[in-house]
What does this fold into?
Amino acid sequence: MRIVFATNNQHKLSEIRQILGAQFEVLSLADIGCHEDIPETAGTFEGNAMQKAQYVCEHYHLSCFADDSGLEVDALGGAPGVFSARYAGGEGHDSEANMRKLLSELGENNNRKARFRTAIALLLLKDGQTEQYYFNGTINGTITKERRGTGGFGYDPIFQPDGYDATFAELGNEIKNKISHRAQAVQQLSQFLMTHL
It folds into this structure.
C-alpha cells in the first residue's frame, strides 16, 4: 500500500518506514515532487500535523499522513512544545543549539520531568471524499544534566524515558522504535490502516 508521509526529515522517514514495515510503501514529500516549506502555524501538535496533511491532499490529491512532535518540560511550563525543532531560533533545525538552550534554561532545577508527544493526522481520499483521523503517543521521562549517547536525533541524548537508565540516544533504534511517542502513534496508525483499507 502506498501512502505519503508529509516530511523530508530523513530520520523520521526511516523511523516510520521501520515501524510500519514492508506492507507499506511510504513516500516522502521529495518522492512526490513537493519541495515547498509547508507552514506549521497552529498552536497544537494536532493542528500542525493536519496543516501538513491537508496541504499534500489539496495540492497532490493523495492520501497522506503527517506528524508533529515535541518535547514538553514541566519546569519550563511545557516549553519548548510546538517550537521544539526551532527552540534556539535561527533557520533550520539545530539540535545542538536546541539542547544547549534547554539545558541552560533548566540549569540546576531538580524538576526534570518531561514528555515527548506526537500527533499524527491522517487524511484518506475515498470516493472523492476526505476522511480525517488522529493518532497520539506520549512517553514520559526526565531531562538529564548532560548529553549521553550518539544515536537518535533531536533531543534524544538528553531524554531518559521512565523505566530505563539510558537516554533515547543510548537505547538504540530497536528499543526506541518500540517505546517512543512516535512508535505509539504509528502503531495506532498501522492498525487502523490494516483494518480500514
